[in-house]
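Sequence in, structure out.
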Amino acid sequence: MKRGILFALIVALPAAALASEIETHHGGSHIPWGKLIFSSINFAIFLFIAVKLAQKAELRQYFAARRLRIAEALAQAERARREAEALRAEWRRRLDGLGAELESILKQARGDIAAERDQILAAARKAAEAIRRDAQRTAESELRNAQAALRAEVAMQALAVAERFAAQRLTPADQRRFVSEFVEQVEQR
């Protein structure tokens, strides 16, 4: 209570002086003491109520809890800020290394493509060589078959010609001699 009176006096005296000063500047010398006292009492009542409310435990607990929530929110915001800065630094480092990483990936891809191209070319060469060998074997086989067919045809034609000539020019004595030579050759084998 003593504090409230002391506070009222501390506030009332400067307020009175201020009111006196205001009246002097406005051309009047009359101080509205009633108005000043009423305002001072009203202000003192306000301060008294504010002090009494501040002394209540619930209000203290509310402000203490609020202070703790604010402190926790500030600490959490600080942690979030540090984490965000760490993430930002990490992403900055990744972005800085991205060019080198992309170049490395491109170099690897080019190497893989070159190796695969070489494998494909080797397989194609091998397949072409196999096709060429098969074609050569087929051509040689066809040539042998054609030669054999041609020989058979020539032999048949020669035999036909020989039969005609033999029938016209061979005598029965020549035929016996051919048969006896043939039999001798078969017996020798």
